[in-house]
Amino acid sequence: MQFRYVATGVVLALALAGCQRTSNTSSYADLPAQPSRPAPLQAQPVQGVQGGQLPPPGGAAQYPTAPQGGQQMASVDPNAAAPGNALDITKQQMVGNWRVANGGSSCDMFLTLTNLGSGSRGGTRGCSGELTTMGSWEVSGKMVQFKNRAGDVIGRVYKSGDTRFDGTTNSGQPLGLSR
After folding, report:
1. How far apart are CA 64 and CA 169, in angstroms?
2. Mean of the pLDDT values across residues 72-90?
3. What's the pTM?
């Protein structure tokens, strides 16, 4: 039995002796003591700065003149009533995807029944202008009101056909929804 302990001790001592360093040479000995730095760059001469009025884009003024004081944008009363020929609306009829025609362009509107503030969650994709801020919607009488994320009415529509709604945004742009 003693032989086992002696043999184990010798094998262990040989294994540990193999882990010792046998050379004092370093693989870093060939590196320079301090790396050399590149020479600093010389400043380049700069031409003088010129000033003057730029010409309008495209050679001629392509933008309308700015409104003068006292003029206001056309706006629609957020509490406006639906016209007399408007059809009855339920929230369930409005849920889903709608194709929106707004001021000559078109985009998508999505309406859900998920509560958000005083209305239900809704949103748009590919729209421009006021409709990009839409966050919710609600049915108010025979009108559907679209609201921004702050809860302000940005547009409204009324039912004009089985799958057709017409109205305006607050800025007066015509607004149409269809499926």
Report:
1. 22
2. 64
3. 0.55
